[in-house]
Specification:
Blueprint (H helix, E strand, L loop, with lengths): L11 E2 L11 E3 L12 H11 L4 E6 L5 H11 L6 E6 L8 H12 L9 H9 L4 E6 L14 H11 L4 E7 L4 E2 L2 E2 L3 E4 L4 H10 L2 H18 L3 H10 L2 H5 L2 H14 L1
Parallel strand pairs: 2-4, 3-6, 3-9, 4-5, 5-6
Antiparallel strand pairs: 1-2, 7-8
Helix pairs in contact: 3-4, 4-5, 7-8
Length: about 260
């Protein structure tokens, strides 16, 4: 299983597979920073949820590690699926379901006619085998500020969830609503617990431990146990620099705009 850095070609069709089965399509979109923790308790909980249906919703605070958790799930359950597709809708500017299906069809080498109905296109994709599909960062692309799916994305996600050979993971900063009701099989992802901090501590260098030990109280007063903020703090070594981090500013701006 390979990891593809952002803004590279989405699909890597491996030729190193037995001739008796089709080539696997793998599309992982990033490698997590080493300052993010493998959250064992969450992995166990979401693995249990994955046994209850054909989809999983991860929602919660921006920067809490939803994308990283989804990536871990791809790696953890890799042997269960013929194909694994991971799409960051915002990063790759996948603004519409048609663009998403175009990208998937390119990877599977499906040649659909321009007027092929959406549901039929999804059914053809589903025939390619058991596929784990991650749609990451729905909040700015596929949802209204209330969390409700837009009409076109609701139709697309409904079509995906009707396919038994597709397992779909959706991530968003907002709870995902289909009409008035939230999508089921969902897990809210929050900040770290102290057990996670202790696990992180074991992975740090001596220099990093000394820095964090001397400054943890000040960090916690300002940011609590926010995973992304802590990762940035260990990288930047300055609370002031963390306050000017573009990704954290984007998270704050998103919630400010959503609330208004």
């Amino acid at each position: 299983v390979g990891f593809l850095p952002p803004r590279r070609r989405l699909f890597d069709v491996s030729a190193m597979t037995p001739s008796s089965r089709p080539a696997r399509v793998l599309a992982y979109h990033f490698e997590p920073t080493r300052h993010h923790i493998y959250r064992y308790r969450l992995i166990r909980r979401v693995s249990d949820l994955m046994e209850r249906g054909n989809h999983l919703v991860l929602h919660g605070l921006g920067g809490a590690g939803k994308s990283t958790l989804a990536l871990y799930l791809c790696d953890f359950h890799e042997a269960r699926f013929d194909h694994i597709l991971f799409f960051d809708l915002e990063e790759y500017k996948i603004d519409t379901p048609d663009i998403l299906l175009d990208e998937i069809e390119e990877g599977f080498r499906i040649d659909s006619a321009p007027d092929t109905p959406l549901a039929q296109r999804v059914e053809e994709i589903a025939r390619k085998g058991h596929t784990l599909l991650v749609l990451d960062n729905l909040e700015k692309i596929a949802q209204e500020p209330s969390g409700k799916l837009t009409r076109e994305w609701r139709r697309a996600i409904d079509a995906l969830l009707r396919q038994n050979t597709l397992f779909t993971i959706l991530t968003s900063r907002l709870k995902i609503y289909r009409g008035r009701d939230p999508l089921a099989n969902a897990l809210a992802i929050g900040t770290y617990e102290m057990a996670d901090i202790l696990l992180l501590w074991q992975q740090l260098s001596d220099d990093e431990r000394e820095f964090l030990g001397n400054n943890f109280a000040d960090f916690q007063d300002r940011y609590g146990l926010h995973p992304l903020a802590l990762a940035r703090f260990l990288e930047l070594r300055s609370l002031e620099a963390v306050a000017h981090d573009e990704e954290l500013i984007d998270i704050l701006s998103f919630y400010t705009q959503t609330l208004h």
